[in-house]
Model the fold of this input.
Amino acid sequence: MEGVEPIRRKNGRGYMSPHLSIKFDSHLFSIDTSKSPKNCIQPDAYLITHAHSDHYGKSAMLSSSSIASAETARALEIRYNRKYRGRTFAVGESIQVGEVEVKTFNTGHTIGSTAFYWETEVGARILITGDVKDYSALPKCDFLVMEANYGDPWDASCIFEDDLASFYEAFESGASFGAYAFGKAQRAVALIRAIGYQGEIGMDSQSLALTRELMNESEPLTEISGNCPNVVSPWNLGQVPGFNKFILTGRNDVTYPAIRLSDHLDFRGLMHMVERISPREVLIYHPEGNRARLLAHHLKQCGIEASSLGDVENFFL
Ligand SMILES: [Zn+2]
Done:
């Protein structure tokens, strides 16, 4: 798009780094990107959409130019045991980067997950979604940078609905659940509390630290226990007594029975999101692999100007 230029970075050996920057007017914003080495061009800001490892906050959090929600910053600190050195905001507030006002929106993917929005000097509206579960709060834009975790139109596993009925049925039967410590675990606890359960929930140490800190739970959370339901990282499910266990996931390659509970939009949701946001151009930047390319291809067939990160030809060292 005129005046809006995506750029990637190559490392010293010529390989692409986990990097995307958007150049506009006299500014450079990096998106879910590892921190640039000292001798490289430095962005005005590192926008961190959320604290999942494949969005590189572990690295960007060490820069004073990083920008993340207060919850994302805290989750990064707990996950990586290092200090977040950037600036924070409350999701829904704006944050100023030089003369650019960056607006923030909730995407419902994790606690604190954020979409970023700003306008260029000539009024082009840019929206960066990060990973999305709920697009209802997102504004319309001209240039959309989005994910495609379940963006393959030809893969049946990219079409799904959350199976809340099975989750609650399992919970009533006394089951324990495997859920990733950041994101899914808090969602599971919220669902369990939503039906009025006020008793203890057992968790492994990282899930416990993240959930206590991010949810301000007034109801009891405890260590893994045979006397209450547990929500633990999938690899710790073996430590939970008993046999009534499920993994909460959108994937189907797991070692316990799975209950489909995803933190992402499925393919149909992604398409509805694009329709609602009605951009003039789409860049799909995440995840690595084929799905970004396949969704871009599909959007083009639908008459929308679209590309994926692999199509970005501008780069710097
Ligand atoms: Zn994520």
